[in-house]
Fold this protein.
Amino acid sequence: MHYLAESYLHNLDPTALQLTDSFGIKWYGLSYLTGFVVGWLILRWMSSTGRILLSATQVGDFITYSIVGVLVGGRLGYGLFYEPSLFWDFSAEFPFWGILAIQRGGMASHGGMIGCLLFMVLFARRSGIPWLHLLDVTAFVAPPGLFFGRMANFINGELWGVPLPAAQQADPPWWSIKYPEEIHSVPMEQVQGLQPLLENPDATDLHQQIVFEAVSGNQALIDSMVTLLPARYPSQFFQAASDGPILLSLLVIVWLVARKPGVVAGWFLIGYGMLREVTELFRERHVGALEVGEFRTAMVLSIGLILAGLLLVIWSSTRPTRRVGGLLRPAPMDEKGEVPPDREHFA
């Protein structure tokens, strides 16, 4: 761990375990796996205590559907919303098509939600469980996965925060982040001034050598480049906190008592959308396909989620259906402790 002034210098390796020269296990993949495992454990507990309509066997099947939906939707959504060129990016290297090259990174949380929704509807048709209840279940266990995903974003050194105000740059706070890769945007005459401090001053790519030695611990180089790199907000941590524990706390409060199917999911959309609107203000702008004036793609999509959530809460609350779930006192099931006899009323 290295520090520039009071800021943390990002030097984390996105690969958790390097198995061969060309293949390794990424932290990003492990974050998805951890999120799904935590979701599966929560659903197993809710199933065994009668808080959801899924049986223990159905929980495993439902998680499998969710995994496929999130991965497919997240990747396709990234291409659609942020980088459409992936759809016509072909090369001679495996996996040949840009949209399949997930090793380069690029997943959209909004796309993952849409994909999960589509596969959830498919599961509902096959299992006979009301799709609105499955929507509530999916929303309730989503925050842990969102949290781990944002933490992986930080480890990968992606989705940078915006620079701190100019007044804080001279003496940045301890929680701010500096990225050595930003040496590429520093004027060349200043970059050349760092060359004598390099262990390999004759490197072909001066910028890349500076980055390499800075993250490797060349303290003399670090001390000299300190004023050249801007300190940024740790936006990944902001969004990990908002999408994870804060959003989950909201859903726990909503589902303390039994709710009509769809209400919990509606509040998830409202909460996620509002929190995303706030945290996007601290994140570097990523030009996407749905920019509207000062509203970037993620903000436009989040406004849509908020509106959809409000409509879902209103519609679900007024439907003539039984209440389901309840963390403090689960709604009663039938005599077998399974799906209530009038479950068709939930469809």
Notes: Strands lie at 2-4, 7-9, 15-18, 24-26, 177-178. Residues 9-160+234-332 form one domain.
